[in-house]
Hypoxanthine-guanine phosphoribosyltransferase
Amino acid sequence: MQDFQVVRARALLEHAREIVTPDQVQAAVRHVADVLNERFRQPDNTTYPLVLGVMGGAVVFTGTLLPQLDFPLEFDYIHVSRYGDDDRGGQVVWKVIPRQNVAGRTIVVLDDILDEGETLAHVKQRLLDMGAAEVIIAVFADKDIGRRKPIVADITGLTLPNAFVVGFGMDVYGYWRNLPGLWQIRQQDLKPAEPETEYPIPDVKAPGTGLG
Ligand SMILES: O=P(O)(O)OC[C@H]1O[C@H](OP(=O)(O)OP(=O)(O)O)[C@H](O)[C@@H]1O
Ligand code: HPA
């Protein structure tokens, strides 16, 4: 069983294509750090943020970014999942909800990717509902999905094409969060879409054509 998973994980990567190199990844993180440092550098700034990493995808982005921030901050994490081990999003599932310390605070939310935007729209709304004063959304990557999203990131490291990617915290079926660059998974290696449920069409007779 274990062997099968290893073979499958390796096959997914063998057919994948590197679309962002490790150096480009680091430059994108640097850009996010520069924008945040500028935002919180002001000497008269007395509002220091609570930074929240959205686990698990943001783990690598968060770990790379935090040492590049040069202002006082507090850190905590939340855990939300919408994809699970799938390549399509579903319901937002909270695994670790925000703590009460978000009330009245300026919050910086860090996530690896803004794809359809459902996850971060949900996260932002929950934080505002809990009394956060301001929510700044910083994402490592924003995917260009060609349609409007329910949320726009305040800070974006880089923009990705509309394809399924792995690396730098992003996984395919649980694998390859550990890659230092970003790789595009071949479309045919993703699970086929579930067929639409087909309901049998009832055999409705026109009025007056039935028995009786
Ligand atoms: O913009 P959306 O379409 O909502 O997708 C973006 C979310 O999807 C990923 O999380 P995922 O649900 O895969 O959980 P993970 O962080 O554990 O990988 C990613 O980390 C984002 O949080
Ligand atoms: O393209 C993606 N790759 C990995 N995880 C994701 N979560 C949302 N979109 C993606």
Notes: The helical segments are 2-14, 22-41, 59-65, 118-129. The chain has one domain: 2-189.
